[in-house]
Design goal:
By secondary structure, the protein is an all-alpha fold. It has helices at 3-9, 13-22, 30-50, 65-68, 76-79, 82-102, 107-119, 122-138, 143-153, 157-168, 170-180, 183-201, 211-227, 234-254, 277-292, 294-300, 304-314, 317-337, 350-374, 392-412, 425-439, 447-453, and strands spanning 54-56, 59-61, 385-386, 445-446. The protein is built from 22 helices and 4 strands.
């Protein structure tokens, strides 16, 4: 095969994205795609900024910018944008579920497809880090270092466990929206209030974990409200944003909630793990302000060039999210192998801030080949597969195994302080088994292979 043949078969990403962008139907709300891309990029930049490792006595220490410079905790009000992702999820899930119902679809088909799209890009990063942890242990690396690296790289997976559960509940949350409207949102807010009172005032153990559902489901309901036109008037959306901001300031100023919207080492309370009323208030503020500028943003997204950039990024968004901290770790390892170059600068100092653009450029350079290798797992097209519905028990069991495995990955790490392999094999196995239960249901077949045999 000649080089010209290869170039014809592999057009560059931008022309392909431009072609896809031009085919977008005019009724599509492009701002939904923009917010999805923006929220993930904000998380990436926030993670790269907050992690502040440095060398001390020949060893790498895992510094945390929010603990080193407390004033930077205010920055999390802008960088903790997971509420926007759940807002977008509510909009997209509501539209998709309603369209599926009109076509006679069912929950196993609809949810099974979503599980596949979400878990497909996750499995490679889990398996690669399991191998890295195993080889690192076998080569005699200190287990604490292996654990630190794997924990840091796999931080993003906690979100997917929560999002899968919220998505699984769409038939019921959407039905509640159709019947009760905004009351379905306020009921969830009341639930979040009750949970925080029980946890922080009555000191009921573990009840605060219920707010993973109450808080994120509440924001998800706002996505339904958005798609129904409840925030069509920018003034109304702005008032929601201001109301959320006032509530957030009051909760932080007068209540027990910390300023930071992510966990800070040594802090007694986290606003994110699990989420609190402060996180819900932040979500209301962000959603309100984002929807207040929607008309202007949608007008700007009529530009084919800008819209092409959004399409291009959305085509690899999960890969960027899942691998950006692996790129971070790779750069740190390279710096450590070169004698700790650049890691002797005190985090938070003027020299440290001036070096951030260079470090960010290195993170991007390390991330690009990871995107090139692993973004293919994100491009699972329904045109390539046909499947009969997976039985309910397989879908529910598979989803639970996936969520438990991802939650355990974030909570206790895949790296094990004991054992020969240095890996908690059961933690890695749970998402893999769960994905197999969901993906390979009865009647699963590849269309191309079946047609090729006819």
């Amino acid at each position: 095969m000649s080089n010209s043949d290869v170039s014809l078969k592999k057009p560059t990403l931008w022309p392909r994205a431009t072609e896809m962008a031009a085919k977008a139907p005019p009724e599509r709300n492009r701002y939904v795609d923009f917010l999805r891309a923006f929220s993930i990029l904000a998380v990436v930049v926030g993670h790269w900024l907050v992690a502040a490792p440095y060398m001390q006595d020949g060893a790498v220490k895992g510094g945390h910018l929010l603990g080193i410079l407390p004033w930077t905790q205010w920055l999390t009000w802008g960088f903790q944008v997971m509420p926007l992702f759940f807002l977008v999820g509510g909009f997209s899930n509501g539209v998709s579920w309603a369209a599926g119902l009109r076509k006679g679809g069912n929950w196993p088909d609809w949810f099974g497809a979503r599980v596949q799209r979400l878990i497909g890009p996750v499995l490679p990063v889990l398996l690669i880090w399991s191998l890295l942890a195993a080889f690192g242990t076998a080569l005699g690396m200190e287990r604490g270092v292996v654990r630190l690296a794997s924990e840091l790289a796999l931080v993003p997976v906690w979100f997917l466990a929560v999002y899968l559960i919220v998505t699984a509940l769409v038939p019921w949350s959407h039905a509640a929206w159709r019947r009760f409207g905004m009351a379905s949102f306020w009921i969830l807010v009341a639930g979040a209030v009750a949970v925080d009172v029980a946890a922080l005032v009555l000191h009921v153990p573990y009840v605060n974990f219920l707010n993973f559902l109450f808080v994120w489901l509440a924001i998800h309901q706002l996505g339904y409200a958005w798609s129904a036109g409840n925030f069509a008037r920018p003034v109304k959306a702005l008032l929601w944003g201001l109301g959320g901001l006032v509530a957030l300031v009051a909760l932080v100023w007068f209540g027990p909630y910390p300023i930071a919207m992510i966990g800070v080492p040594g802090a007694e309370l986290s606003n994110s793990m699990p989420p609190t009323l402060a996180m819900l208030a932040l979500g209301l503020a962000q959603c309100g302000f984002a929807l207040a500028i929607e008309p202007r943003m949608r007008a700007g997204l009529d530009s084919l060039r800008l819209w092409t950039g959004v399409v291009l990024l959305n085509g690899m968004i999960m890969t960027v999210y899942l691998w950006h901290l692996t790129a971070f770790v790779l750069v740190l390892v390279a710096a450590w192998l070169m004698g700790g170059i650049g890691l002797d600068v005190v985090p938070g100092s003027s020299g440290w801030w001036l070096a951030r653009p260079l470090w960010f450029a290195l993170y991007v350079a390390a991330l690009l080949p990871l995107i090139a290798i692993f973004s293919r797992f994100e491009r699972v097209s329904s045109k390539k597969a046909e499947r009969e519905p997976v039985p309910h028990w397989r879908l529910i069991t598979g989803c639970l195994l996936i969520c438990i495995g991802l939650a355990a990955t974030a909570a206790i790490s895949i790296a094990s302080p004991l054992g020969v392999t240095g890996v908690r094999l059961w933690v890695v196995a749970l998402p893999v088994i769960g994905a197999a239960l969901v993906r390979f249901g009865p009647g699963y077949r590849l269309v191309g292979r079946v047609r090729g045999k006819r």
